Each structure stands twice: as structure tokens, then as C-alpha cells.
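From the pipeline queue, job 12 of 40. The input is one protein chain; the requested action is below.

Action: predict structure.
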Amino acid sequence: MNNTFKANLIKTLANKKGNKGFTLIELLVVVIIIGVLAAIALPNLLGQVGKARESEAKSTLGAMTRAQQTAFAERGRFAANLDELEVPVGNEKFYGIFVDADAVGAGAGRMGATGVTRNDADGTVADIGGVANGRNGTRDYASGINYDPVARTFSTVVCRANNSQAMKDGQYVLHTGAGPDGQQNNKTVIGTVAGLTSAGVTNAATLAECDDAVTEEVK
């Protein structure tokens, strides 16, 4: 009896050793598991990609607010355009960086970054704002600087479009009038900065602040 059992066992093992394929059910289970993992991981991955792209706007606007302090110290006013500010912004890939088109008036000290998609052939701006933001996972940014002549201090702030329903519906677009600027080789955009409740005030002790309704402050 033991010999018969051993013989059957050896025969069964030999048959299994020769069968190296996978059944259809096994393949389906593997595909389902991969699909579930991808569905969980993909949104997180895309979110991280968007955050990495947004670092372009944060770092550039941070440099611009610091440059505005120097410009104010030299001229007694904030820079009215990129040429005066002297901060190179020609290599941005996902954002168009600009000084408020009304910088000589109420918009002085306000700067913006709006999502763009560039044409790889000639480097011109292909899509502005909502289209680019939705495609690239980027949000519009705004920055402002204020000078308090009494305390003789500056205040600066960098804001980005928040996750309110209004911003989601509008593809996280903040700025108005943003469009290609032919005078800048189509490398930047022009427009009016939105998302700030106060900035660029030189005759009152008003801090640069984000508009909480549509933006959040970037720490």
C-alpha cells in the first residue's frame, strides 16, 4: 500500500513539474490586482507631478518679490515690468510669469504666474490658463509685496489658487487678461493679477495678503 501511494505521489509530482503554464483565472486575478493598484496609485502620482511643476512658479515668484525690495530701494517704487525687475523668467516650462499690467497704478508690487503650454517647435505659448492648468496639473499663483513707510518694513506673500469649488470649476485660473506678450518673444504673458486683497501699497501700513476666498498662502 505504501509503495502504491509513493508511486502515485511521484507520478503526481512529475506531472505538476511538467505543467509550467498559468490558467486563465490566474492571469485574470493578476490583471485585476494590477488594475486596483494602478487606480489607487495613479491619482497620487499625478498630484505629485503637479506639485513638482508648481515649484517652478513658487521659486520664481519668491525671487521676484525679493527683487522688488531691491527695486524699491533703488527707485523709491516697485518695478512696473519684467525689464525693470531684472529677474530672468525666459526658461519657465509650465508657467508664464508676469508683473501686473497695471503695475504703475493700483497693481504695483503684484506679480503672477499662470499655467501655460508651449509649442515645442518655436517656444510660443499654445494654451493659457484653464486649458494648460487642466492639462499640466498646475494652479495659478500670485505674489505681492507691500512697503510700510512708517515702520519702513516690507511684507511679502505668495498665494496659489485654492481647492474651493469655484476654483475647481474655473480650472484654478486666477489672473484676468492673461495672454501672449509679443514684445517678450511670446515667452511670457501679460495680465492683471488677482487673488490678493492687499499688495503694493506704499502710503499705508497694509500687509500683503492673500484673498482667502480664492487663494491660500504658500508657506
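Job complete. The first helix runs from residue 2 to 18.
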